[in-house]
Amino acid sequence: MVSPVMPSAGVLSPLGLEAVRLSPGFWGDRVALNREVIITHCQEWMERVGWIGNFRGVTPRRGREFSDSEIYKLLEAMAWSDHPALDELAATVARAQEEDGYLNTRWSGRRYTDFEWGHELYCYGHLIQAGVARLRAHGEDTLTEVVRRAADHVCARFMDTEETCGHPVVEAALVELYRVTGTERYLEMARRFVERRGRPALGEIQFHPAYFQDDLPVRRARVFRGHAVRALYLACGAVDVAVETGDTELLQAVRAQWERTVARRVHLTGGMGSHHSDEAFGEDFELPADRAYSETCAGIASIMLSHRLLLATGDARYADLAERTMYNVLATAVALDGRSFFYANPLQVRVPAEPCEGVNHGAEGGLRSPWFDVSCCPNNIARTLASLPAYLAAADGDALRIHHYTPGEIRHDGLALRIETDYPWSGTVTAHVVEGRAGRISLRVPPWAEGATLTYGGVAHPAEPGYATAEADWRPGDRIRLDLPVRPRWTFPDRRVDAVRGCAAVERGPLVYCAESAADEPPLARVTAEPLAPVERHVDGAVELDVPAALTPPEDDAWPYRSDPRATTGREIPLRLIPYHRWGNRGPVSMRVWLPLA
Amino acid sequence: MVSPVMPSAGVLSPLGLEAVRLSPGFWGDRVALNREVIITHCQEWMERVGWIGNFRGVTPRRGREFSDSEIYKLLEAMAWSDHPALDELAATVARAQEEDGYLNTRWSGRRYTDFEWGHELYCYGHLIQAGVARLRAHGEDTLTEVVRRAADHVCARFMDTEETCGHPVVEAALVELYRVTGTERYLEMARRFVERRGRPALGEIQFHPAYFQDDLPVRRARVFRGHAVRALYLACGAVDVAVETGDTELLQAVRAQWERTVARRVHLTGGMGSHHSDEAFGEDFELPADRAYSETCAGIASIMLSHRLLLATGDARYADLAERTMYNVLATAVALDGRSFFYANPLQVRVPAEPCEGVNHGAEGGLRSPWFDVSCCPNNIARTLASLPAYLAAADGDALRIHHYTPGEIRHDGLALRIETDYPWSGTVTAHVVEGRAGRISLRVPPWAEGATLTYGGVAHPAEPGYATAEADWRPGDRIRLDLPVRPRWTFPDRRVDAVRGCAAVERGPLVYCAESAADEPPLARVTAEPLAPVERHVDGAVELDVPAALTPPEDDAWPYRSDPRATTGREIPLRLIPYHRWGNRGPVSMRVWLPLA
């Protein structure tokens, strides 16, 4: 089966890429864009900036200490789709591997001298994930030979030490390599990496040890903390280890951390991370809209984690968060043309950004950029979109569960469904039975879908949030129709979210909406909204929303603090909201998700 | 005259340390604490962490690339107060100077290979400021010889290049060295450093060139931007150059930048800087309470700039901002015992911090720390408090202007006043004439002091914000009394300050107040306040305030966004506010300046 996560235990079993084929639609379009544009874009940029050249021994070496991992993420993306460029790129990588399996263009000759920042095991992690993809989608070849040698080197070097890497990811990768090869030492190595973290295993850095989750053993932590991508990759590895070793305490610990994080440390978009300085989760309820870091890679890592927890438990809440993150982080992070990307995904931009046509030295989220000095996000998008179909549905024995809705075909054990839907623009999802047998088919009902119905056999059944199940002896021509009410709705923050007090946002179905103002005209800082029913407008195949708003008069005080509050009345203006994932596709704009209320 | 800034032109002339002597009181106590505790604390720590050892050639070298500057700031502090430890420390520094005047323990042998981050000219700047202090307070000696040789080296090396330093400060230092020595090439060198910046003069870094103000020539910028300390030190140098060269365009440019910055980019405390990642000003109205960086050094740099602009123009607004910053940043940054310091000065702390007894690797502002990896702030506090009396009053010809009120004696040109006051706790300031002559005496009336009166000759005169002037033929025994109403007042933010929408703060006189909650009990996230008249409580020589407040019930939702806003009613609780500068002196606490309104 061709799937990035294949646990040997758990409530649900994954379906692979061979079982879920997408046709044109919200996600099908993006998966095609990835295959046709994004993967090549990434490869061309990594040639241009010299990161691929590093494997050819070009000097001086270019890129940051972790740039090898970017080539590996691209190899993973290529592996899922059996991309024709894979072989040559894999051969380039193979030539840089040393006799004993060591492979790193930055640290060769100075191996393992900086566990805090060296990223060597992190790079192996992404290399191994590429090899897992290749093994599952294709079989043994040059790349997988490189990967096995690297993994064996890691086990030989680290099995009996107390060391680990400043950046997790090797843990999840090793478990998956165990799953695909059956080699138990990979699982044991992953288990030890998870267990030794937080004893502590790493040295002092300029940040708190929570930055790389070395403040506490994984099973003793209560919430995700520190660098968001590190925290979420580590949690993925911990779940994988817990599932394979039957360690229910560890699984419960990660579930509890997820619960607390989701209750207090997640942006409305599903984005995670509030600090620019250390790319970290902030404190509980520290969720600034303007400085929301919400790194694209953290969104992807969160989707990876939710998927693992969903498979382990069958709990729809994990799919709910994954959906929110897919539509509002993953889909946002890539331009509609697939040639530029967000690193950070803020929920507010005050000042329209200058376009960046080349390498963005920062991570600021004012406009998408073609490439970054730290360009983890584009390749991460590429590998995620390449494997995305495997995230959309799963099996519960012979029963089928569909988590996410986009046009395509889903096959499972003699059952074949053709999914037709305009979701998320409409809430109607129709599953046409193409090949039938008796069994259960469940469709996820998101928590906002009050009044949803599931219609089959000519009867409409009320469908509560969670999974709605239809059971029958399915025959070709049968239809199951899910109707999710995707009316626009106003959403208010918990009062502890200081950053957006006095504001509300609009959501519609799984989509978060935002106001976008070209050249900041009207100035969004002077706009107030009234939380009355928005009016839907169908524009370019998307749904936009008009909300009642006012433009308050300009103020030009010499000091921004006053002895009396200003009135917030102004003249009525039309305010158009667009789906957040589409913002910034038309040049420099100001933007806000959270709208101050009058 | 012994004063850090001695312009040869401008509306006001400084008074020196010999003319302003403080007795016990708000600032006199802190100046004494500096002399008795802080200076020694800094010296001991810099021995302990090895930064002084670097000058002795101890290897490996310790500290960051700019650590030499810390010794120079301490030398400046010692110079103002003729500290007995100065000579030995100066001799240690002198031994590290090279034949041609070059002096840097980090870059010797690799001189001037990194203008963006090397900080070599920055270090000279602080060295020169120490030398200026020594020349004015004492006269020529080892230190001043080192300084002249270093300054001459700088002029020889940089007069005819286009280079400058990533971190400004040498500009203001060279102007002052010109002022004290009369050597015109120092002024010319300073002028060139100011002019060549932003052409651009520096290379690419990971931040926008605005980070080190190299995006625009100084005279073309419209607002302070980028790294706050860099921006403000550069502005000081630009004002100094403008004043000495009669460049009114340049002076007007800095004034306009100040105006716009003060209207849009300053925290209520006077603190400047909103980003942790680049220690920078944010966009207009980007003023987060929790992530307010408000670096202590930026506060000091702002006081230095306001002082220069005040001397140049006589405009009381500069003294108003300086006062706000002195009471709410400078006084906050140092513990009541003088042994720990804030680097960042946030306006909100959600989670009580763990105490740090040693070197703080970060800059987080949850509790004061004895020392930091980047320990610019303690030495900056030391040199500022050592010269603080020179900031408190000035001369306008034979007239005297008093900007800031604290007990002490002020002499000017045959006039001597003894100041008695309990300010800022009370608003009554009495100036007793000790030595008299005919002339004008002006006292500053802050903008919040509505209804102030100036009483002299037995008559009370209404005193408008700005300066209130008393003119008479003063005789010993005469008294001038200023009565400033220091009633507590609620303050509301401009609605564009997103971070504190729906909140208000309490001020009283020049002091900002805050709620401080030991172990976060009551939890400040659940407290709402009503903006009704606070009740004053006299505690430990300070005034605390009780405000009407409510504690809302705990919420434990699984997701922090809801379809309806929560009610904000709760049970009434007493809420004590303390002066912001006193927070965090009693162990770990949560804290907030901006209180959510019910």
From TrEMBL, chains A, B:
Keyword Hydrolase: yes
Presence of keyword Protein biosynthesis: no
Domain of life: Bacteria
All residue ranges annotated as the Non-reducing end beta-L-arabinofuranosidase-like GH127 C-terminal domain in the record: 489-596
Alphabetized UniProt keyword annotations: Hydrolase
Family matches, as SUPFAM superfamilies: Six-hairpin glycosidases
GO MF term set: hydrolase activity
Domain Non-reducing end beta-L-arabinofuranosidase-like GH127 catalytic: 19-389
Domain Non-reducing end beta-L-arabinofuranosidase-like GH127 middle residues, every copy: 400-485
Protein name: Glycoside hydrolase family 127 protein
Gene source species: Streptosporangium amethystogenes subsp. fukuiense
